[in-house]
Amino acid sequence: MKTLMFFLFLIPVSLLGQNVLTYEEFNSIVKENHPLAKSAELRALSGQYQLKYAKGNFDAKIFSDIDQKYFDEKKYYSLMNSGLSVPAWFGVEVKAGYEHNVGTNVSRQNITPAAGLWYAGISVPLGQGLLIDERRVELRKARLTQEISKQEQVLLMNDLLYEAGIAYWNWFEAYNDLQVYQEAVQLTQDRFNAVFNEAKSGNRPYIDTLEAGIQLQNRKLALQEAELKFKNTGLKLTVYLWAEGFIPLELQTGTVPPKRNDLSINEVAEAFLLSADTVSLSHPEIFRTNFKIDQLELDKRWKIEQFIPKVRINYNFLTEPFGGQMFPDYSINNYKWGLNFSMPISFAKERQAYNLAKVKLQTAELELETKRKLIETKALSAINKWQTTKSQVELYRRTVSDYLKLLEGERTMFQTGESSLFMVNSRELGYINAQIKLIELITKNHMAELETNYVFGVLGK
Questions:
Q1: How confident is the model at residue 3 (pLDDT cuts 50, 70, 90)?
Q2: How far apart are CA 42 and CA 36, in angstroms?
Q3: Are 76 and 103 in contact (CB under 8 A)?
Q4: Which CATH superfamily is domain 2-33+136-296+357-455 in?
Q5: How far is 378 from 385, CA to CA, in rounded Å?
Q6: What is the pLDDT of residue 186?
Q7: What is the pLDDT of residue 451?
Q8: Does pLDDT of 9 surpass 60?
């Protein structure tokens, strides 16, 4: 809502003058309301839901199996088995329930007392699944997925703010170029008027008006191109301007970026200089890749587990309800137990699954090393750009000042008849080009600062 009020406020302000939209204000608007910023939040939320989903595999479950058969007015059998199963962490499953089987055709091993049987017991893996099982693997992977989603949220915001920042600084450059050409057209127009009046009075040849007119036409053409560039960069900027509720916004008339002299040129932050060689240790992309490698490690470990035979022992004690009591006459001699065993003969499927998991892991580890080197190289490159463009801006500000002094001196000489219109135009063109170059360097400096923050992965934090 703050964003919407901000832009509504621009309408009356623009009628009175210009309203400056700073980079910090623009950045705040993008962070608060851009749809991709909200999408980044949902990415992190999906990781939380995936973890809760995996935890659901350890929830207790109520079960009930009923199977009955009636034929020729006889009750052949009625089989009922209901209860509760609770999976434990170490592959153990605890189960309790009630079994009641009656009928003329119930097999002898399924016969229960008239009141049924209560049972309770456990199922324990002795082979595959003892150290790790699929439920534990999925839970650990889900925890890693949650961490991955957090890093992806940071990376999405990092990308968004970087692209938005480029659009902003292009808009800044276009606006300041426009200011230079507007001033140049006004000065050229004033000089043309003065030369024309002097030519009318006979103090200057009419051919000078032709040269002054050509310069004016060239400056107007350059101004039109600058106006087009400013409009188009402004349109690109609106892609990142949204109000609360995903309402797209437009730049109101009179909204402009700061002028070049109103911006400070920042030193490279010491934190960047100190961590340039180790940026990969704290970069969200490296964190995300490491978490993915951990997931692949779990997959590989689970594939190794498939080579272990499946051995599971089940034990249940039994008791018959009597007199309303559930366990009236518990005896260790009343029980049921079983053993399940299975193992592939060739392990062909298991071997290929393991080989595939190993290749995926090795590929991810190689990609990680490549990413580390690439990030560290980009970090050093961005810092170098930031430092170099800062020095260039400081140097070229003096150059622009010197061009202005040359222009002012040439104008004075022109007014006293000691210089020509050609020399004034030449000095003026040099001053215009110097200002445009300075604006370009200032823009490059701020883009280098933006790039440094982007490469270090801190824009989205």
A1: very low
A2: 10
A3: yes
A4: Outer membrane efflux proteins (OEP) (1.20.1600.10)
A5: 10
A6: 93
A7: 96
A8: no
The pLDDT mean for the chain works out to 89
- Residue by residue, DSSP assigns 17-62 as S-EE--HHHHHHHHHHH-HHHHHHHHHHHHHHHHHHHHHGGGS-EE
Which structure tokens are listed for 364?
């991810």
- Within 8 A by CB and 6+ apart from 233, the residues are 167, 170, 171, 173, 174
Which percentage of the chain shows pLDDT scores above 90?
59
Instruction: Find tokens 């699954």 and name the residue.
Output: 353
Instruction: Please report which confidence band the pLDDT of residue 327 belongs to, taking 50, 70 and 90 as the band edges.
Output: low
CA nearest neighbour of 222 among 429, 442, 434, 440:
429
What does the domain layout of the chain look like in residue ranges?
Answer: 2-33+136-296+357-455, 67-88+92-127+310-345
Please tell me the chain's helix, strand, coil percentages from 3-state DSSP, rounded to the nearest 5: 65, 15, 20
Q: Exposure of 147 by Cβ count < 10 A (0-12 exposed, 13-18 middle, 19+ buried)?
A: middle
DSSP 327: S
- Structure-model confidence comparison of residues 291 and 106, the more confident one: 291
User: Using CA atoms, how far apart are residues 137 and 414, in angstroms rounded to an integer?
Assistant: 85
pTM over 0.90? The answer is no
Structure-token match 């824009």, residue found: 459
**Cα separation, 423 vs 413, whole angstroms:** 10
